[in-house]
Design brief:
With 109 residues, the protein is of the alpha+beta class. Among the domains are: 1-29, no CATH class; 73-102, no CATH class. The chain contains 3 helices and 4 strands; from the N terminus they run ββααβαβ. The chain has helices at residues 13-25, 48-62, 76-81; strands at residues 3-6, 9-12, 73-74, 101-102. The protein is flat.
Length: 109
């Protein structure tokens, strides 16, 4: 292992030494070359569950459905209309002043 001390920085190992030389010489001076081609994994890289979820999403999208992602937060006044608004569900540091309560159910959003 190579250990160099340059000011407050310590360089340990070959990779750090190369990085330090490149930094001193300038990264623009390094030749650029593309990464080598990597063979694709046989059978794909998704698990069986991930493949099923992807296929289900594609099938639903092909039939005109759209996925909706909603906030888990809402106004306290609105949460009370759906049986929520309890003090235990109030946020002490909300991301926005009108999103200060955890929603009591999926229906409100």
């Amino acid at each position: 292992m190579v250990t160099l001390r340059r000011g407050a920085a310590t360089v340990d190992g070959k990779a750090d030494l190369v990085e330090e030389v490149a930094r001193i010489e300038g990264f623009d001076a390094l030749p650029s070359e593309p990464l080598p081609e990597m063979p694709r994994a046989a059978g794909g890289v998704l698990t069986v569950r991930q493949t099923r979820v992807r296929n289900a999403r594609r099938a639903l999208a092909a039939r005109g459905y759209a996925e909706r992602v909603t906030w888990s937060f809402m106004r306290t006044e609105w949460a009370k209309l759906f049986g929520g608004g309890d003090e235990r569900l109030r946020l002490s540091n909300p991301i926005a002043s009108d999103l200060d309560c955890m929603r009591p159910a999926i229906l409100p959003t």
